[in-house]
Amino acid sequence: MSVSAQTYLGFDYGTKRIGVAVGQTLTATATALVTLSARNHKPDWDAIGALIAQWQPAALVVGLPLNMDGSENDLTRRSLRFSRQLHERFRLDVHTMDERLSSVEAGVRLAQNGRRGGRVDDVAAQIILENWLNQRGTE
Question: Do residues 66 and 20 make contact, with C-beta atoms less than 8 angstroms apart?
């Protein structure tokens, strides 16, 4: 029996920038792709649509920014709205993943690779997606 890998796109949502990563189930790894700009708190839907058309993901994963105590905040609600909009526009399943400390970890990864001070959004999306893929594999 052959095992086929499914592809997923992961998003680190922000009101100014949205990091995007691609990953797959076979190795549960992800790669940072791009950071998209948002204008007036609105995602670049055309760019997102182009990425979805290019990668043909089985589903999408959006980071859920929670406070350290697990409570929601304004950005949590905005990320959930973004998740609903993704589902409505592209008719794909959208999963959320706790993203606490993903930006901190992204900064560490960038520093380890000599990219200090670089934008962390796409690497944060990579971490969110890797965490979701790994969690999914243990369920």
Answer: no
Strands 17-24 and 7-12: antiparallel
Phi, psi of 15 (to 5 degrees): -75, -20
Domain annotation for the chain: domains and CATH numbers: 7-137 (3.30.420.140)
Other Cβ atoms within 10 Å of 46 Cβ, number: 9
Instruction: Determine the Cα angle at 13 with ends 8 and 16, to 5°.
Output: 135
Give the pLDDT confidence of 111-135 residue by residue, as tens digits: 777 665 557 888 899 999 999 999 8
Amino acid (1-letter code) at residue 34: V
What is the rounded average pLDDT for all residues in the chain?
A: 89
Distance CA(112)–CA(116), nearest Å, equals 8
Tell me the residue type at 45.
W
Q: For residue 76, what pLDDT is reported?
A: 94
Q: Which amino acid is at 26?
A: L
